[in-house]
Amino acid sequence: MNDIKRRGKLVKKTDTVNELNFKDNKKGKHKPSIHKGLPLRVLSRGVVIASLLIVVYFTSKDELRTFARQNEVLSGKVQTLQCSPQYLKEINSYDGCVPKTCKRFVFDTVVSLTEVEGLLAIAKKGLKHGRSLGGASVIDLHSGAMSKGQAFINIYESHSMKNLFTEDDFNLYRSVKEKVKYTIANHFNVNADKIYLTHPTFISEMTSRNAVTKHDEYWHSHVDKETYPSFHYTSLVYLSDYNINFEGGRFVFIDEKYNTTIEPKKGRLSIFTSGHENLHFVEKVKSGVRYAMTIAFTCDKKQAIQDPSIDKYNIP
Fold it and tell me: Is 69 tagged catalytic?
């Protein structure tokens, strides 16, 4: 290529180059080729870079580590994280509620299977009167919101659901909530009297049905603190078993080097700080039905909510 450029300096016009080639051919000399593409060195580098990108893509996308397997029994497994600056900036203003470090925990020994079956019965008892047309339905015992079709209804204002839930149902919910609250206080080294139940707190049902509204699209990655500003501590109590009651539907933390998964299991409790350090999503459920209860806590007393009770029924 450089040789061609040097030759080009000796001639002023393209037709002069052609004339030179013609004369050389007449003498039996080899006709030089003028390469119209990229230099070979550039092409080689491009091939190397493309190859590296392909290798990185196919190796990194499968880099997924299981933090808690369904067949394990965990008495308390922890992963310590660096708190996000945004989370610390806000929570530092609440005395007695600031964690020493941000973490995520998994416990299989806090909530009993009897309690799980009771919570599952509450969910099914309510959702048989509603359910979303898509793959995600919720029932919130605090606000009374429950999925029905493409919207929500209030279970405490529905004549067909009058007194559907009993005081025993609400007592069970309160008992599990208190266990979760004190587990958070103990393992994050905060004052139990300084963390408060906040909204929304709900039981979810996920299936493989296609989404009909945006509320059915549970699989998008998100930060709880951004989705629900009152959240400071998030907890999940799983009410069904991964690969037994459903396929897919694992809980996935998106970490810097690899993704970390939790396989749901009946009675499994997962708790974590609600900031950017715990960006996450739920895999799409491929088959079966996945149930879980979300219970959230705040450090802001103004965002606290009361426990649900039969007093919420407001039907003339």
Answer: no
